[in-house]
Amino acid sequence: MSSESLLPSQQLRLIFIGVCLLSLVESYGFRKCTQYELNIRHVFCIRKEITNLTDAIGDIPRYTTHLNLTQNQIQVLPPHSFANLSALVDLRLEWNLIWKIDKGAFKELGNLTFLNLVENKIESVNNSFEGLSNLETLLLSHNFITYIHKTAFVPLVKLKHLSLSRNHITNFSNILEAVQHLPCLEYLDLTNNNIISLDHNPRSLVSLTHLSLQGNKLKELNFSALSLPNLTTLDVSQNRHQVIQNVDLETLPQLRSLNLSGTLVKLEMLLAKYLQNLREMDITKLDLRGGHLNLNTVCCLLKNLPTLEALVFQKNAMDAGDIKHLANCTRLLSLDLSQNSDLVHLNDNEFVAMPSLQSLHLNKCQLSFISNKTWSSLQNLTALHLSHNKFKSFPDFAFSPLKGLQSLFLSKNPITELNHMAFHGLDLLKELNLAECWIVMIDSSSFVHLTNLESLDLRLNNIHTLKQRTFQFLKKLKVLILSRNRLEVIEENAFFGLTHLYYLDLAYNSLSGFHLKLFLGLENLEVLNLSYNRITYETTRTLQFPPFKNLKSLKQLNLEGQNHGIQVVPTNFFQGLNCLQELFLGKNSMIFLDHLQFDPLVNLTKLDISGTKAGDRSLYLNTSLFQKLKRLKMLRLENNNMESLTPGMFSGLESLQVFSLRFNNLKVINQSHLENLKSLMYFDLYGNKLQCNCDNMWFKNWSINTAVVHIPYLGSYPCHQPDTQSLLIDFDDAMCNFDLGKIYFFSSFSLVLTTMVFSWFSAKIISSLWYGLYIFRAWYLAKWHRTEKEFIYDAFVSFTATDEQWVYEELVPALEDGGQPKFKLCLHHRDFEPGMDIFENIQNAIDTSRKTLCVVSNHYLHSEWCRLEVQLASIKMFYEHEDVIILIFLEEIPNYKLSSYHRLRKLVNRQTFITWPDNVHERPLFWARIRNALGNRTVEKDNAQLIVAE
């Protein structure tokens, strides 16, 4: 279909889709902000010292829905501050220095539903909320607001929740005038202001359901002029400025909850006829007249509240007798008597008149003794709170009348031992909290009567040992918390019977090892926390009894923070954990992982090995460690002092989406490090030491241009070399586009070639110049300065050092000492004059010898001095027209080996040469031929002297 055939509406739709697609491929790295690793539409810019809002969020994608700018230094919100972020639904600006919000600052945020401006410097609220037509929650707490313009909230037609707590508001009328334009307002929070009186001008807030005036300075509670027909919750607690005597709640017909805690109010002023729908009331810390609580007044009120279900009556100096008095006044479902310090003993049917009570709070009293008579009539009680008292133990059958009890809270009592008979009768109990007591021992009888218990909290006690079958009667237990005890020993079958347990917390104990039956019976365990114990190994060798072998259902395992570190993880340590999805190994100061440990974890999706650095040592990871983790989605290797990555180490992580390497010492990231990470969406390198050089050219260009992977705070990555003042994204990689490899090759090739040529000239040409000079000199002397002289030697022997042994052991004895005639030979080491130039010695030796014996071998062919000696002898032969060279071959030498020595080859071709025979019987003939070649003439004895230069 051609573009001409499209209707205008279709063309516009295509253009819109194209724009949307383009917006989705914007740069994925920002300088001051980062996207949430699990949802790219959520952006965080927390604690980044942002002062200029426009610069900080200018490059944030248009599709962002949640933006958090908490704890920065923003002072002003200018007009159109968020013009490019029209998709925002949640904006958080708390903990800044905002004192001014210009008109139109939020104008383009028509989709925003939540705006947080808590903890700023705002003093007045003007017409700053234009455009927020869908805003539902506005938080302006912890500012310095004293005044709100009456039309400030007019644009907020859907606002439901408005918080103005902890400001400097004194005028309640001003607030009502501003909020009366909010047709949907349900919750108004004015906690901790300075409001003294209520408004006496007739006003109506039809939609309001919750109103908090807690912590003000109210001197009256007269709502007669304010119509709140749907208000259900009113909090006027902590108004202690003066005794409130003027109370009128007639205009609050639907009031369900009333909080008068800590407020000095005369209860006589509370007319019950206006509170006929009241269900919850808090009258904590009432005004005590003469030091005695007037319960008659309280009872008078309570008796006339027929729908009251829950009463909070804390800090009223109640004793056991007062409880009986109070119980006769009302039929409650929930009663909170916490923090009544006069409650010491309960043993006399104090609650006999409250058979319908379902929840009872007696926390932070001074109770040290209770009897089963205390609640003999509380058959319907489901939750009992006795925390933070002074119980050391409980008598037999202490709770037996509580047949319907489901939750029992006994934490923070000085209990040292558990009396199992105290729990007799609690057949329906599901939750028992014994945290922060002084319990030192538990055994199989401790919970024998709690057969339906599902949650047991024993954290922060002094338990040292778990004995065999301690929990055998807790067949339905699902959650067991034993963290922060002193556990060192867990005996075999300690967890026997816990077939339904799915959560076990053993963190912060002193466990150091495992045995075969440690976790026996925990077939359905899904979460195991062993962090901050003393588990450690010294070798990777295979364990005889892998500790987790039987935990077939385990999904999460925490081994963080072992004392002195795990050190070495045995090869089969994780054997059996085929269902494990999350593994935490971080915060271990020493941990060594070889290549097989993770192989059984085929279903692992989250792995954290962060915070393992100890001093300057970095985390060691074997190259093939992660190859079997095909389903891993999140990998954290943060704060490990890692300086480099091995190429291909992560290539098997095809499902990896979140990869964090922040706060290491990495200098270079290249393509081989991220090879085959097809699903990667989030790659965090913040806090490393990346270098701005060509080694990082690929990463710089990839990170800027990728449309899939987000790199948090990319725009703020500094260069750690060579220019520490610049940023990685500003690095000019133009120079890297040259093929530096070719430049380096040709440069090095030229250098090597020059060096070789120079060396060749030095070794060959220069020596050849000297060699030519010597030859010329010999030729000149032979041709023009020939003189008749007596020969001193019969023959000069030319040989290499390799053949020296043959010359001295065979040649010399045979010619100088053996047979007649005897010949005089000239030998290098014996007859050359010390201190004279070697060329002069060779020239004089040849000139004063009748013949030249050349002892030829393979080594001889490679000797430059031997070559010179042959040349000089050949010149003498040429100009004297005499056969003066005798060739002796010590071994067979092929003709092709003589091709590089053309003069010697010519001599071989033209003259007869003598070969040293291997057969001993042929050697007399050899010596005879030599003697024959040397001739009969011998040297005169008088001329037997050292060769001297002319």
TrEMBL record:
Key word NADP present: no
Subcellular location: Membrane
Listed SUPFAM superfamilies: L domain-like, Toll/Interleukin receptor TIR domain
GO cellular component terms listed in the entry, alphabetical order: plasma membrane
Bilayer topology: Single-pass type I membrane protein
Chief localisation class: membrane
Keywords assigned: Glycoprotein, Immunity, Inflammatory response, Innate immunity, Leucine-rich repeat, Membrane, Receptor, Repeat, Signal, Transmembrane, Transmembrane helix
One example of a Gene Ontology biological process annotation: toll-like receptor signaling pathway
Pfam families: LRR_8 (PF13855), TIR (PF01582)
Domain TIR: 791-934
Transmembrane feature ranges: none
GO molecular function: signaling receptor activity
Domain of life: Eukaryota
Family classification: Belongs to the Toll-like receptor family.
Protein name, as recorded: TIR domain-containing protein
